[in-house]
Amino acid sequence: MTATIDTPAGTQETVRPSPGSKTAKANKRALLGPYVAAGALLTISVLLIGICAQLVLLSPLQHRAAQSSGFDKLRAELAAGTVAVSQTDQQGRLLRPGTPLMLLEIPKLHVREVVFEGTDSDVLAKGPGHRRDTLLPGQAGTSVIMGRAAAYGGPFRHLADLAPGDTFRITTGQGRFTFRVLDQRHAGDRAPTAPAAGKGRVVLMTATGPPYLPKGVLRLDADLMGAAADTPALRIAPDSLPSSELPLRGDSVVWWQVVLWLQALGAASAAAVWAWFRWGRRQTWIVFTGLLGAIGLQVAEQVTRLLPNLL
Fold this sequence. Notes:
Elements: E1 3-6, E2 12-15, H1 22-80, E3 100-106, E4 111-117, H2 121-124, E5 129-130, E6 141-146, E7 167-172, E8 175-185, E9 200-208, E10 216-225, H3 255-278, H4 281-306
Parallel strand pairs: 4-5, 6-9
Antiparallel strand pairs: 1-2, 3-4, 3-7, 5-6, 7-8, 8-10, 9-10
Helix pairs in contact: 1-3, 1-4, 3-4
């Protein structure tokens, strides 16, 4: 606060409180509240806008780019005969998550997707993923393929439209295989009997519920039509995968990245609020709009990896 006093000469003089006075401290506390509130509101707004933009606008573009790159690599390896047909590569090493393995074609749904190895959030952002502790489609036994229902292109968004008797194709390093749909099942539904010896089955999985709000898991069972291909031994024991590769799980490993990017976002928001009040609105828009947008998208991308992988 400031005060005016009358001088002996009849003029008024403004008296400002000294920096260490109680009045000056009270003024600083009064200004600090709006600064903190504005900074917090800006941080939350940038974060929410970034998450919405990432899931709805950017994720389909990222999915399309990953599919294009994966298809080029898969096509080249199919032509060269070097596509992996087991859980290991030609050197005997376990396949890295994200390795393109096969091509899934569902004519009724207009789906033509490269399927990658692995089922965590990062892999399923590229396209459908093959569960690593199961056989490959076309081999004797059961294979599992998981795909998103909404985000990152939502390749399995219409999976529930498939009915018993519908067919689809999967091309692997062992050839092209056709599967006939048996039926759908949800949580609590009875699973079909295991395929007979020498027969193959594929289970397609995605989320149920409204878009971006998964409530459960839809499983679609389909049997192999024709003879199964050679079946190598499993190197990864069933039900031994980390939790991040199970249905409707997120990748908790990225928490530290989320925290670091949130700190950067908070610091940038604080600087933007200070500039708004002390520097000028036009300068603040010019300098901080791009910076806050870039940081917000980085935070949003890491946050989406914490969300359910079938979202």
